[in-house]
Input
Amino acid sequence: METNSLLRISDLVVDYHIGKSFVRALDNVSLDFSASGESVGLVGESGSGKTTFAMSILNLIEPPGRIVSGKVEYKGQNVLTMSKSHLMKYRWGEVSMIYQSAMDSLNPVKQVSQPIIEVIRKHKKASKKEAKERALQGLQDVGIPLNRANAYPHELSGGMRQRVVIALALALSPRLLIADEPTSALDVVTQRQILDLIKRQIAERGLSLIFITHEMSLLNGLVEQIAVMYRGEIVEKGRAWEVLTNPKHPYTEILIASLLTSNSKLRPFETRVNPPGESAAVSGSNYCKFVNRCKYAFDRCRKERPLLKETSGGNLVACHKYT
Amino acid sequence: MSAKIGILIIACVLGFLFSAVLFGHHSPQAIVGPADAPPSLKYPFGTDYLGHDLLSQVAFGAFPTLFIGLVAALGGTSIGFLAGLYGGYYQRLQPVISGAIDVVLSFPSIVLLILIASLFLASNNLIAISLVLILWATVARGVRAQVASLKNLPYVDAARTSGMSEWRVVNRVIAPAVAPIAVSYFVLTVSIGIVIATSVEWIGLGNVTEVSWGSILYYAQTYAFIRGDWWWVVEPGLMLALVAIGFALIGFAIEEELNPRLRTYGDKFTSENI
Amino acid sequence: MSQVYLGDKSVYRGSGEQPILRVSNLSVSFRGSDTGIFRRTQHTINAVRNVSFELEASDSLALVGESGSGKTTIAKCILGLTKITSGSIIVDGLDIAKIGKKGLHELRKRVQIIYQDPFESLNPRHDVFTTIAIPLQLLLGLRDDAQITEQVTKLLQEVGLDPKRVMRRYPHQLSGGERQRVGIARALAPNPSLLVADEPVTMLDAEQKLNILSLLKELQVKRNLALLFITHDLASARLLSRRTLVLFLGRMMEEGDTELVFSHPSHPYVELIMAAMPNLDKPRSISDFAKATIEESLRVSQGCVYRARCKYATEICSEVDPAWTNRGGTRFVACHNPRN
Output
């Protein structure tokens, strides 16, 4: 039992069964969080497995998804084999989550402070008065003034609703927060406000953070480490600044080149369509999954699956170019 | 899952009924045996106070009942579908149709039905028609709500900008999208229709000379208890319950299937389940 | 596979002819009702207030703003999907307010739209062929099956899709980027002269984003289209549009050459957007920029609508609505304290 690690995911393999065949959503993924407020950004396109990854941490994989092998250990305990009562305490009390559609999932007939009050009462056995105080304080912390705490979800803008979602996620003071594309539906200004808010909260509370997105530029200044996922595997991992300015894996290069930022350089771009449906990965593939899109691909890439190895600069990369 | 159970129940019941009708020895109206005979090998469902074979009665009696239920469901769903579709889509029709729906639903409709049945000559057709007039409103309300949620979807706008007239849009784009929910309503109204029809007949307001589950129960409720013929009451009652539940399960299962589950996380984290 | 230089602005010919699109003093209001449990209040939502702009053939204009800025409402009005409260919109000579059913038909041939959501903008019950065939049949009146198939094939190729592979597929069998391409093919079917793109890449992955944007650019060049590009992201506006108009709560804030607006914003709101954009420099917090939320801005009834959020607001800002002022060249701003 590693007392140093807060959350350790080891060799996780998750499949989704569709009819007779299956898709390997996570192909031997490992990640390690130490106990001291680390933050990691997880980047990848749709189909990379990043959402499946988040769901695995909270043991939310349901059929047709299936956890084939691997462990998710929180403070040494395997989340995937926890008892139900233990899971109830773990979810939200230790690890909680915010995600894009959450702001539309708020109960429309309840005032926004209600769910927070209920959660606090249920888990902390607090009195009505105490719970209400804590809930209102929590809402204030995320920038929702007292006079809006009794509003109904439809009376608030998208940005405000997402703040409520954050307050709800932080209500029980968890140790780790998972954010899965929380700002994708919001405009740039609101997005920045929400990101600043998340940053402030994790700093103030000493939280660890896993921030999942398909837009790498959001991670600048937000997380310390970045892990890049492609079709169920982590293909590059390292310090955020290194990955952003000095990407090693060919896929990461493409992601960086695609960024539309305020200092985008205009360059020639190909209008080739990337064939989808390639997301159906074969189990135990013994070739590099990126080979069809890779401009550096050579012989070895078709015969051998690259493993994560450390490169100069400190990044871990899974690519034959570096071995 | 529940659909499968429902289908199984209905299939079994129908199979049973059909085989009883095809292979049964006795006519439901004929007095064939001793009166008040409990279920036995010769008379698997026993006999009533006059000696009718109850198995034949229950088997043949299913059809008028099912007939009313099906007709009521067909009529109610068709009218309800059209009302909900056009009422929900066209702004000008909205108040008219919504008003009609509200009137029908706020009325104690069953009471009205009983009133009608008792004032006029009892007949299956009358009951069926009355049921149609009552049930259409629930269907219309559900369909209307669906139409309202679909009306402003981007692909509906896209249909308009692709050159479709409003008439085409409502018939070619919206209608197919809400048709599935109408199917689920159909199945549910069969269930409701059968129960209500039987209940009306049970209190004697239907055609008591024709053999139907309701009419069986009408006689049974008067005579069965004094004579101790428990099976006389249980058999039609149980049949009714099975068929009603069977259709209901199928209907609910269809409705659930149609609920779009687009979001990965869905509503996984609400205060109710955290 | 073609190589396109994004940001190639040499397309615009500055013909000086009649603009393809002329929006004049457009205002659109809705009646909304707030339904609480016991109350039901009616109030008027001024989605668009006094917006005017022009767009010439083969030119491109970006409408930039957050949710609530009115940009989507404007798009819908141009398409004839939403009623105008006051003002006028003239598309290729057709006055939207005055056309009847027949005019609407003609309008649909001249202006088309690409929607934001690749999931919800395609009918899930129609395959790709049907989706593109419908405008061909209804707007162009094509009847011959062979002809229709030929056209559909050409359009699919034009947007970079393999006709044989996708023609019979249904939306759920395609990726987001592919769906968006189908939407573009559908929009191009009636051969419009004006294309409205409503946040066409907002819901796409990073790589698909650039692919679609460069496709749009290529199409604009090839077909000589006027492009109205609606977005909340100034960065993509920069790549696609020669001019930009920034909106806030239905009102115009700043307009000008995209490059200049980008590099030297005049209006504090544009300054805010620039600061909020994700980039690879040291990220700045915008808390000192954005003092208020949208809700508070909605309650402003007098003076500049942006006042509640503005860090440079002075007394005059709460009393007088700033006028639309020319700041040299084609630059216009509505502000009492412009930044440069």
